[in-house]
Automatic annotation (TrEMBL), chain A:
<feature type="transmembrane region" description="Helical">
    <location>
        <begin position="270"/>
        <end position="292"/>
    </location>
</feature>
<feature type="transmembrane region" description="Helical">
    <location>
        <begin position="12"/>
        <end position="32"/>
    </location>
</feature>
<keyword id="KW-0812">Transmembrane</keyword>
<protein>
    <submittedName>
        <fullName>ABC-type dipeptide/oligopeptide/nickel transport system permease subunit</fullName>
    </submittedName>
</protein>
<keyword id="KW-0472">Membrane</keyword>
<dbReference type="InterPro" id="IPR035906">
    <property type="entry name" value="MetI-like_sf"/>
</dbReference>
<dbReference type="InterPro" id="IPR027268">
    <property type="entry name" value="Peptidase_M4/M1_CTD_sf"/>
</dbReference>
<feature type="transmembrane region" description="Helical">
    <location>
        <begin position="209"/>
        <end position="234"/>
    </location>
</feature>
<dbReference type="Pfam" id="PF00528">
    <property type="entry name" value="BPD_transp_1"/>
</dbReference>
From TrEMBL, chain B:
<keyword id="KW-1003">Cell membrane</keyword>
<feature type="transmembrane region" description="Helical">
    <location>
        <begin position="114"/>
        <end position="135"/>
    </location>
</feature>
<keyword id="KW-0472">Membrane</keyword>
<keyword id="KW-0813">Transport</keyword>
<feature type="transmembrane region" description="Helical">
    <location>
        <begin position="83"/>
        <end position="102"/>
    </location>
</feature>
<keyword id="KW-1133">Transmembrane helix</keyword>
<feature type="domain" description="ABC transmembrane type-1">
    <location>
        <begin position="77"/>
        <end position="281"/>
    </location>
</feature>
<protein>
    <submittedName>
        <fullName>Peptide/nickel transport system permease protein</fullName>
    </submittedName>
</protein>
<feature type="transmembrane region" description="Helical">
    <location>
        <begin position="257"/>
        <end position="280"/>
    </location>
</feature>
Length: 797, 287
């Protein structure tokens, strides 16, 4: 027990708390649940009204509650803490460095000039915060100066004005040591001033200086707090009049305290929570300083002769001279320090890796595909699809659900746009090596999980089947000798919010929603055919056998083509564009390729990296359609304007479909609308067309809606309710343009640049994530600082 | 003597420069840069000295009316002086009693621990916390602990006094504890113990006598701490003290007068404390 009392808790706790603090400084903003500009809006949820200020610990979304205006307190603190700590550190480093240097040298002078002492005395009388107050008052409020300039001034001035007191105490200690006998001895032996200072005096003061350093940090934070109480916040004060409100620009901790000062009367949590964090900050450093002091004191102190109150009873830990510092075996403090470092790095890595984990909508079914097929001379594909499906939810699954689209085109199908029909023969389905029970209706393939497998988290499904694509179908199609295999394999549906998200196939839009998956495809073709696909590196043309791979794509499209010309061109970063075509159409091949190259380059420069190394374009009969890394274009249509527009559209889809995912059934507007906007932006910003010309297609779509008298509809409706595709293509594009024109001044000077920056930021924020309307609104609202109601005219929340 | 004059001149220039800072520093909104109009400094010094030499303290602006400072400063000055005087003296007495004379008792240990915890908390946090506490106490019990109305008399004053006393108490208490601990290891204490003197006697005649110089040396620092807090406390608790002149105006004259009044208050407090020490020594300690 007595051993436990003698432990230097103050030191250990101090080291731990300071580590926690530094961790929050480095990784705080990554951990923040919201952004600084995101507000809690008054809303009904489960029959309760949620309105700011929210009390702490009431909601998971706002762990520490919100302030009066609905800004999240924890977010403000996590963003502000680094300012507080790093500014305090910067000031302390400067003043301790200069102060110590001057103090050491002045202390060794034979006589200190009286004016220095006079100045020190005069200076020690003036409260330092008052000097800063007078300095910052003319420049802090609604300052035209940059925040960084203000911070710089604060750091420099605060450091300079506190140097005299540091000099004073270092000088006194130095002078005291300078009188010691061993200094005299060193002087007698011929040591110069610098040697005396750095070899004899400074080593004696190291420990005191370290403690002083830590205490000065606390002192700087105290000054910042005092300034905050008189409404001077570090980094600038925003003043709002009527009512008079003072706001901190940087959300630096003492600033958050200061701006909440009037909350002593009510909603005290807005004041108390940042205050506690600030307290934690100062106490951490104080504890560390105290702990170090205890250790040094216990090493050097003499035992008192009379009974006194404060008896330090630490066990001294002295350096043993002549003994090597051994790091091994680890024990006691070293072990604790090592585990602290490991924990710090580990937690930091974790925070960094998972920083985007809360972005986007999640699917709990993760599939990996291993597909094999053999195509015979008659065009029958004999296929084995081995699919591994991981259950990442907490539920036990009853069944696995797949889209199996070839099945809907069987003879007698209702789709007028599909001329021929497909043939599908299911041979066998195995699950985890056992024969599986399943049902196949339309395009829904359900595989019933046997009771003993329900709690497994990984299922391996093997489906063997043969199929032929329908002649002149939609997407999944046979055009003369060419075969287009789209959605030709069982595609795992997404599992969201505790259920399988699987809708029935229908004509028109895309009814299938798949997550990003890894693919490995092994194929065998008759002689004379070439294999062109989504894969990162397609085999050489006319190669009739091979294996290809690609990771993190939403679909795997294959074109099996015969006798087509190939044209190639390079876009930025070595991305290769291949164009496959026949000669029997009137569209210029060079033109098409150049347009594709220009559009891709534009997007590469303005939006971000193109996700693949290659973009394939196949010009043939059928639909204009995007697949990851490959697009199909129909050159046989007459409307050249639409033709050119559609090419850019499909390329834009490589970003807003290929990388930013969405549910194309329930949230079809997300990829189509934003792609349409990006397409028009290419003509507007990239080709410098007039706004009317660049946006003529979305505009035309909306005019059509008017002419047909379809009235109004939200853009985020599921496909079966949709009155016209204009609501998912044209309406979002026009509304986005309107928002840009309304709000671009917040972000820049040119509406084109701001629009492209918006698309780029959107793309990078949601890379390889799924977006829905709520996520989009959350992003856009925060981007342009608009209320949620801003989108009410075209999006239904 | 030379040093004292030097010090007085430095303090005088320092205060005037400080008061002039709001006038000297200007933000150039167009170029987004800071401008220092240092050339105005001599003019400001000149004006201030000529105003004082006329025997008047000058004027200040209150809203739209211009008032003479000497007419209004009296009450404010004495309010601040009262707060400071009571605050600092009680800080010294408390820290001496608990730091030395009652140090060995068990109950003091509790007090010690409490003070140690408090001393790690920055003053301004203590100030805010205690205000929140006072509001809460009123909520729970209906007892009005503080009043933020400037005309509330004692109710308006006792709490600021208490808060002003906290920082110096913590500082002095820590200092005295450390010095007590150091002193008690000295050989003359050993001798005194060996002679069989009582603890109280040793505390008075040996320990106190040797600690007093340290306290005297730190007195300026202690008063400066109290002054620093006084500014904040008067500001946020609506005490109509001397800081009113400093915070409410942008002119050089009232700020400078306010700061000089502060200096005067510190001087008076310093003198009073020295007199108290002297009397205590004459009364209790054998020279």
């Amino acid at each position: 027990m007595s051993k436990l009392f003698k432990m230097n808790f103050s030191l250990y706790l101090g080291v731990f708390c300071v580590s926690v603090l530094l961790f929050l400084c480095f990784f705080g903003p990554l951990m923040a649940p919201h952004t600084l500009t995101e507000m809690l809006e008054t809303q009904y949820r489960d029959g309760k009204v949620l309105s700011p200020p929210m009390e702490p610990f009431e909601s998971d979304e706002y762990p520490l509650g919100t302030d009066k205006w609905g800004y999240d307190l924890s977010t403000m603190i996590l963003h502000g803490l680094r300012y507080t700590v790093f500014i305090a550190l910067a000031i302390t480093v400067i003043k301790m460095g200069i102060g110590t240097l001057c103090g050491l040298y002045i202390g060794t002078w034979r006589k200190t000039p009286s004016w220095i002492i006079a100045f020190e005395n005069a200076w020690s009388y003036v409260p330092l915060f008052l000097v800063l107050y007078f300095f910052l008052r003319p420049i802090s409020f609604n300052s035209p100066l940059e925040t960084s300039t203000l911070l710089g001034y604060f750091i420099v001035i605060a450091a300079i004005i506190s140097i005299p007191s540091i000099i004073s105490s270092v000088r006194l200690k130095t002078a005291e040591l300078h009188k010691s006998v061993y200094i005299e001895a060193a002087m007698a032996l011929g040591a110069g001033r610098s040697r005396l200072i750095w070899k004899h005096i400074f080593p004696q003061m190291k420990e005191t200086l370290l403690v002083m350093f830590l205490l000065e940090i606390v002192y700087v934070i105290t000054i910042m707090g005092q300034l905050a109480l008189v409404n001077i916040f570090i980094g600038g004060t925003t003043v709002r009049f009527d009512p008079l409100i003072y706001l901190s620009v940087t959300k630096e901790l003492s600033g958050i305290v200061g701006q909440a000062r009037l909350n002593i009367y009510g909603n005290t949590h807005i004041l108390i929570i940042p205050l506690i964090v600030l307290l934690f900050t100062t106490i951490s450093f104080s504890l560390l300083a105290n702990g170090l002091k205890n250790r040094y004191q216990s090493n050097y102190a003499r035992t008192p002769w009379i009974k006194i109150g404060q008896m330090p009873n630490m066990k001294p830990i002295r350096k043993k001279f002549g003994e090597k510092q051994a790091w091994w075996p680890l024990s006691g403090e070293k072990l604790a320090l090592l585990s602290l470092i490991i924990a710090f790095i580990g937690a930091g890595t974790y925070v960094y890796v998972t920083k985007d984990a809360d972005v986007g909508v999640k699917s709990d079914a993760q599939a990996t595909y291993d597909l094999q097929f053999v195509m015979d001379e008659k065009g029958v594909f004999d296929t084995v699809a081995a699919i591994e499906v991981k259950n990442q939810s907490k539920d036990d699954w009853e069944e696995l659900v797949f889209y199996f689209i070839p099945n809907v085109f069987k003879e007698g199908h209702p789709f007028a746009s599909v001329k021929g029909h497909s043939e599908v023969e299911m041979k066998a389905i195995e699950i985890n090596g056992e024969k599986a029970e399943y049902s196949l209706e339309e395009d829904t393939l359900r595989i019933i999980l046997p009771p003993n497998m329900k709690d497994k988290h990984k299922h391996r499904v093997e489906v063997s089947y043969t199929f032929t694509p329908p002649e002149e179908g939609v997407r999944f199609s046979k055009e003369n000798e060419n075969y287009y295999l789209a959605q030709w394999y069982p595609m795992a549906a997404t599992y969201q919010d505790g259920k399988w998200n699987k809708e029935d196939y229908s004509d028109g839009g895309e009814t299938y929603h798949t997550d990003f998956s890894d693919y490995r495809v092994q194929y065998k073709l008759p002689e004379g055919y070439s294999f062109v696909s989504t894969a990162e590196k397609d085999p050489a043309l006319l190669k009739s056998e091979g294996t290809v791979k690609i990771n993190k794509v939403r679909d795997f499209f294959i074109a099996i083509i015969k006798d087509m010309e190939v044209h190639e061109m390079k876009a930025n970063n070595g991305v290769n564009i291949r164009l496959f075509t026949k000669k029997d159409h009137n569209k210029g091949i060079e033109d098409t390729l150049e347009l594709a190259q220009d559009a891709l380059r534009f997007y590469q420069e303005k939006i971000g990296e193109y996700p693949h190394k290659q973009l394939d374009m196949i010009l043939d009969h059928g639909a204009f359609m995007e697949y990851p890394g490959i697009v199909t274009i129909n050159p046989y249509i007459q409307d050249t304007y639409f033709y050119r527009n559609a090419i850019v559209h499909e390329i834009a889809h490589q970003y807003f479909y290929g990388v930013v995912s969405n549910d194309p059934y329930h949230q079809a507007w997300i990829d189509e609308g934003i792609t349409e906007f990006a397409t028009s932006m290419y003509f507007y910003a990239g080709r410098n067309q007039s706004e009317g010309q660049a946006f003529s297609i979305p505009n035309r779509r909306m005019e059509m809606v008017n002419e047909l008298g379809l009235g109004r509809q939200y853009s985020n409706v599921p496909l079966h309710e949709l009155k016209s595709s204009a609501f998912i293509y044209g309406q979002p594009a026009m509304e986005l343009l309107k928002m840009m024109k309304d709000k671009y001044q917040l972000k820049g000077e040119d509406v084109k640049i701001v629009s492209m920056q918006f698309l780029s930021d959107y793309y990078h924020h949601f890379q390889y994530k799924e977006v829905n309307t709520d996520e989009f609104i959350r992003f856009a609202k925060d981007y342009f600082l608009v209320p949620s109601g801003y989108f009410n005219s075209w999006l239904n929340r | 003597m030379a040093r004292i004059i030097q010090q007085i001149i430095i303090i005088f220039l320092l205060i005037l420069t400080l008061a002039a800072l709001p006038v000297i520093i200007e933000v150039n909104a167009g170029e987004k840069s800071l401008e220092w109009n240092v050339e105005q400094l001599p003019k400001i010094y000149g004006e201030f000295i000529s105003e004082i030499s006329k025997g008047s303290l000058g004027t200040y602006q209150l809203g739209t009316q211009v008032r003479a400072i000497e007419e209004d400063i009296g009450d404010n000055f004495f309010t601040s002086l009262k707060v400071m005087l009571i605050g600092v003296i009680s800080a010294i007495i408390i820290s001496l009693i608990f730091g030395i004379f009652l140090s060995r008792f068990r109950l003091t240990k509790v007090f010690n621990a409490f003070m140690n915890i408090l001393s790690t908390i920055p003053d301004f946090i203590i100030i805010i916390m205690s205000m929140i506490l006072a509001v809460k106490i009123y909520r729970w019990t209906g007892i009005r602990v503080i009043s933020l109305r400037p005309d509330a008399g004692a109710l308006n004053l006792w709490f600021p006094t208490f808060l002003v006393a906290i920082a110096p108490t913590l500082y002095l208490f820590k200092l005295i504890s450390v010095k007590y601990y150091e002193t008690s290891g000295e050989d003359y204490i050993k001798t005194a113990v060996a002679k069989g003197m009582s603890l109280n006697y040793i505390n008075f005649q040996h320990v106190y006598k040797n600690i007093e110089p340290f306290i005297k040396a730190e007195l300026i620092k202690v008063i400066s701490l109290a002054i620093g807090n006084l500014f904040i406390i008067e500001y946020i608790m609506n005490v109509s003290g001397i800081t009113k002149f400093i915070f409410q105006s942008n002119q050089v004259q009232p700020i400078a007068i306010g700061l000089f009044a502060m200096l005067l208050i510190s001087g008076i407090v310093y003198l009073v404390v020295r007199i108290v020490f002297y009397l205590f020594k004459r009364g209790f300690i054998y020279e």
